[in-house]
Amino acid sequence: MTDVEAVRAQLAQARRVCVLTGAGMSAESGIPTFRDAMSGLWSRFDPAQLASEEGFRADPARVWAWYAERKQGVRDAQPNAGHVALADYGRRRPGVLTIVTQNVDDLHQRAGWPQTVRLHGDILADRWLEACPRGLGCAITHAQPGEPPACADCGNLLRPGVVWFGEMLPEDAIDAAERAARDCDVLLVVGTSGAVWPAAGLARVARRAGAKVVIVNPQASEIDGEAHWLLRGTAAEVLPRVLDEG
Length: 246
Ligand code: OAD
Known about the structure:
Layout: H1 3-13, E1 17-21, H2 24-27, H3 41-44, H4 47-50, H5 53-58, H6 60-76, H7 81-92, E2 97-101, H8 107-111, E3 117-118, E4 121-128, E5 143-144, E6 150-151, E7 158-162, H9 171-183, E8 186-190, H10 202-208, E9 212-216, E10 229-231, H11 235-243
Parallel strand pairs: 1-2, 1-8, 2-3, 8-9, 9-10
Antiparallel strand pairs: 4-7, 5-6
Bound molecules: 2'-O-acetyl adenosine-5-diphosphoribose.
């Protein structure tokens, strides 16, 4: 039996499957990853300046413009064969699949899995930097155009709705992710370097709870030691092979 056949058999019989995705999931849709040596965003840009509250406060216009470009990239991108294979598998097997993503794009949702658990927020959903100082709640309709837009009443700034370094993950999302990792029979990890916590810890949580762990990645990752099967290939190639019917 090949590894692909063995993983297909696991996925066909599992009662609960958790899928953890990272930037590699969307790479074949044209969205850059973070840590790939040549093409990764963090090989060209400094995360301290562009992905932290401190960096935003130091130069809001620069950070806003950088995210504006990335937002456009997300809007222009389409789900790839991997996103589609996951959503199709979930629809064929009601109640089995939980997708947990570190990605801030909406490609799982657009492929047909709106209930995707988002650990790192949503790049298309801006929010206010501060709680409204007047206690009234700044209204998005009061945002004055600008880079970034500011509240017409109090000057509060809009910021992208992603989780930056040093910030807590949304509590409901990390709770749902940990539950899914603990309860699954198979954890499928796709396209993550395993460098960022707590997401990277979900593989160990699942394995300790008795799940089979499968990693899909063309390169080595920091959590390969947790895997029962390492499938060396890309998301769009490998996921249809392990998930599609027939
Ligand atoms: P990374 O950029 O750290 O890792 C991307 C992984 O995807 C690498 O292991 C690549 O080998 C793999 N990869 C590349 N192309 C692939 C493909 N076509 N198919 C499958 N895998 C492929 O991205 P993440 O692990 O997601 O934080 O990074 C975690 C977090 O760090 C991100 O969510 C982001 C970043 O700072 C936030 O946005 C808050």
